[in-house]
Design brief:
By secondary structure, the protein is of the alpha/beta class. It is built from seven helices and seven strands. It has a single domain, classed as Glycerol-3-phosphate (1)-acyltransferase (3-Layer(aba) Sandwich). Helix content is 44%, strand content 15%. Helix 1 crosses helix 2, helix 4 packs across helix 5 and helix 5 packs across helix 7. It is globular and about 45 Å long.
Length: 222
């Protein structure tokens, strides 16, 4: 059990696993969730996961794609103002961040978790896509990467935008499919050598490639 997340107390690991199975059953039944590349996930060590951001479904659905490890994530501070939701996401290891003004404290907390050997999920676009396409990655992702000095795993989600577009307050519960793809980890030194602009472009290109492949696979299965 400790191998799932050696940095967390046992109660938090068990709570995460309980939520994991609830979400896994739910999204498998509703959206016929498919996961590709699960074998690419390193079994241990600090790891930053970067993924495109299509909907509110993204954090829990991408999270259940990591079958053998628990993850931490960074979430908008506003989510922590909802009493019950705040307790749940804190229990799952989510770190609040102030979007508009930046948050050095949240970045430091995320770096500390990564250096302890934890896996951290971030959405470098900063917000949900308005049209399903992947927008430019923000520099905050590079700050986190360059200071934590960990490898990066590109990931992509497809179908979540159709299931829960940004314009809808609630998701569609039937009639859509969602898939997640985990790419190959990119070594920190390789990205650092590229510098901020080219490094972020490399990550975005990898995520876009994974997303395009998912779209093609999902189209073939219609």
């Amino acid at each position: 059990m400790r191998s799932l997340d050696p940095t967390q107390p046992l109660w938090q690991i068990l709570f995460y696993r309980f939520c994991y199975w609830v979400v896994m059953v739910l999204v498998t039944l509703l959206y016929r969730l498919r996961i590709f590349g699960a074998g690419n996930l390193p079994p241990r060590g600090g790891l930053l996961v970067v993924c495109n951001h299509q909907s509110h479904w993204d954090p829990p659905i991408v999270g259940v794609s990591f079958r053998t490890r628990n993850m931490a994530s960074i979430g908008r501070e506003g989510l922590f103002r909802v009493p019950v939701l705040a307790q749940i996401i804190r229990g799952l290891g989510c770190i609040p961040i102030r979007e508009d003004e930046g948050d050095a404290g949240a970045i430091r907390a995320a770096i500390a978790e990564l250096r302890k050997g934890r896996m951290m999920l971030i959405f470098p676009e900063g917000t949900r896509t308005p049209d399903g396409s992947i927008k430019e990655f923000k520099r905050g992702a590079w700050v986190l990467l360059s200071r934590a000095r960990v490898d990066v795993l590109p990931a992509a989600i497809e179908g979540a935008f159709d299931a829960w577009p940004r314009t809808n307050r609630l998701p569609f519960l039937f009639g859509h499919r969602i898939a997640v793809s985990l790419g190959t980890p990119i070594p920190y030194d390789e990205l650092k050598a590229l510098g901020p602009e080219r490094g972020l472009a490399r990550l975005r290109d990898e995520v876009e490639r994974l997303r395009a492949e998912l779209a093609e696979k999902m189209g073939e299965r219609r």
